[in-house]
Amino acid sequence: MSLAAFVLRRLLWAIPVLLLVMLLTFALMRGAGGTPFEPPEGVPGLPAPLQRELTDFYNLDEPWFVEFATYVKNVATLDFGPSLVNRYRSVDDAVEEGFPVTVELILLAALWAVPVGLVLGLFAAVRRGGVLDHLATSAASVLLVVPVFFVTYVLSRYLVYEWDVFPLGWDTWTSKVLPVFALGLAPAGYVARLTRAAAVETLQSDYIRTAWAKGLRRRRVIGLHVLRNSAVPLLSATPPMLALLVTGALFVETAFGVPGVSNEFLNAARAKDYPMILGLTVALTVLVLAVNLVADVLMAILDPRLLEEKA
Amino acid sequence: MSGARRTTAAFLRNRTGLLGAAILLGIVAFCVLVPLISPYDANTADFTAVRETPSGDHWLGTDQYGRDILTRLAAGGRTTLLIAGAALCVILVLGVGYGATSGILGGRVDAAMMRLLDGLLAIPRLPVSIVILVFVGLQAQNIQTVVLALAIVNWMITARLVRGEVVLRKRQEYVRAAQALGAGRAAIARRHIVPNALGIVVVAIFLELPAVILGEAFLAVLGLGPEAPTATWGNIALEGITFGRLWLVFLPSLAIGVLAVAASLFADGLGDSLDPRRWPGRNPRRFPGRRARAPEPKPS
Predict the structure, then answer these.
(1) CA-CA to B152 of 20 to 30 Å: which in A240, B54, B186, B276?
(2) Which of A14, A28, A203 sits opposite B132 (nearest CB)?
């Protein structure tokens, strides 16, 4: 199978998954009962004409499958519709404003976490069984299990609120330092543990022994042979790694006042703003599926045997 | 079942696995026993002793309502472990059901089910469990809704492990022999595959445990946990964040971290012990872990 066919097939498989996530979210909202227009306590309800307009837009008075089909059609044309709670804001606004920020945050965090994790893991693998290996491996495990809310609490309370070292928000690069740092910690630990496992395996293989025997420099053996052959198992761990980042972003954005989608999502969840929640969930799922697709393609390029196996 | 006995024997020689088991037992004992022994109640406020630092009376101090933190931490551990245990039971049913069905049926069904599983593994877990909680737990947030929300997003790894084990078992000679003797699919599944796949199920459960415990804490910190005054590790951390007490955030985080490390040590140790190549009395040269190490490079 060619690479193009592989990509196409993967793309086609993403569609039922996306529909499933939408259907699940949708079913939960329908199953919750009531109408979307019962305001939560302390919030004034929407005026009647606006309610009519929203009912028309979402086909709320039709049977559930018509409503769902309407929604899928809207999403397919990238029209997520208006919010049910805030009449001056559409879901598209939230996605357009929040998504680039969240994506930037996640990318920057991965940008420092992956290299640091790689170096830490390789370092531990080369010194396998030694004191330094135990130190590096323990450090990686600690990074992985410290709950992200503990890190964000400590960093935001002391460095932002009490000592005033870094500002809140996302406007200047100084304000980006702490969120990016906090978000990358757990992924760095995760990458380090994976790299160590993959590199230990690779280091024992015959071609590495041959490479040493040929008298190749250490930098060339580790950098070229070990790293490249450990790349596939590492890339295959993209989904859990991305999950760490997306989960962490929820806490990091709240703690440091980053205007990404997570705050929007949490507020929408509290206010039961159905279209907003649905839209943001769909957008997040698209992001995750897209990143995983890229990882799959990279893996197939590095190891063409996967084209046959994983198709 | 001599396989189980040999697995146990191999596990008893696995030091890190034993350490994990001991820590897990210690945590469970702490959570069960402390509220029984403690002179304090986990939820009774005492406004004469608010925000105390650790002392002889209150070993870990008191919180903003004067409740003993040690007792609350243990009681919270009980609730958290209860939630985790219940969620793991649901995960077990979903994961084993899905994985075993896929593996036993095989062929195109298996391929389709596994591809669907790939997709499900890719969904953003915490957001989806928040969505579930918000809509299922509309009236009251209680333990059941949290259990449900955690189980629905966390059963996929178990399903994949079980399916892999089933496929592996299906290829083995004793299953082939049973097929040749005319045993039906159901009989083979019941007599040969399920008992042999049990070990991997236990491993899977302990691999999922950290994710479930962390998931509970995450949901609680976002304000979606069981309602106050119920103590869970996540709720205690949330109170620490709300009332600005590092100590209250640190203790449950520490408990969660230690539990996560212990669970993965235990799972790794048990997984190794299930490997027949590591059973005592086998040729040690066949141990994969004892292969000749790559020669250490000379410092240049």
Answers:
(1) B186
(2) A28
Contacts for B116 with CB less than 8 Å, ≥ 6 apart: A16, A17, A20
Residue B62: beta bridge partners? B68
The gap between the terminal CA atoms of chain B, to the nearest Å, is: 55
| ipTM, 2 dp | 0.80
A305 touches chain B (CB under 8 A): no
**A246-272 tens-digit pLDDT:** 889 989 988 888 888 888 888 887 777
Q: What is the pLDDT of residues B268-298, one digit of tens each?
A: 888 777 776 666 665 444 444 444 444 444 4
- Scan for tokens 């178990």, then name that residue: B158
Instruction: Give CB contacts under 8 A, 24+ apart, made by B287-292.
Output: B291/A204, B292/A204
CB B51 within 8 A of CB B68: no
CA distance A103 to chain B (A): 14
Looking at chain B from residue 221 to 250, which residues have their Cβ under 8 Å from any Cβ of chain A? 221-223, 237, 240-241, 244, 246, 249-250
Q: Rounded to whole angstroms, how far apart are CA atoms A80 and A92?
A: 6
Contact between A232 and A302 under an 8 Å Cβ cutoff? The reply is: yes
> What is the three-class DSSP state of A82?
strand
User: At residue A291, does pLDDT exceed 90?
Assistant: no
CA–CA gap between residue A128 and residue A244 (Å, rounded) = 27
Q: Which of B127, B221, B294 sits opposite A284 (nearest CB)?
A: B127
pLDDT tier at A224, thresholds 50, 70, 90 = confident
Q: Do B297 and A221 touch (CB under 8 A)?
A: yes
| Single-letter amino acid, residue B22 | A
Backbone angles phi, psi at B57, to 5 degrees: -75, -50
Q: How far is A27 from chain B (nearest CA, A)?
A: 10
Cα–Cα dist B253/B239, whole Å = 13
A265 touches chain B (CB under 8 A): yes
Closest-CA residue of chain A to B249: A150
Residues A133, A134, A139, A144: is their CA dihedral positive or negative? positive
Q: What is the pLDDT of residue B27?
A: 92
Which of B116, B253, B290, B293 should be substituted to probe chain A, the one whose Cβ sees the most A Cβ atoms within 10 Å? Answer: B253
- Residues 178-197 of chain A whose Cβ lies under 8 A from any Cβ of chain B: none
Q: Among residues of chain B, what percentage have pLDDT more than 70?
A: 89
3-state SS of A204-256?
CCHHHHHHHHCCCCHHHHHHHHHHHHHHHHHHCCHHHHHHHHHHHHHHHHHHH
B121 contacts in A (CB within 8 Å)? 239
Cα R_g (chain B), whole angstroms: 23
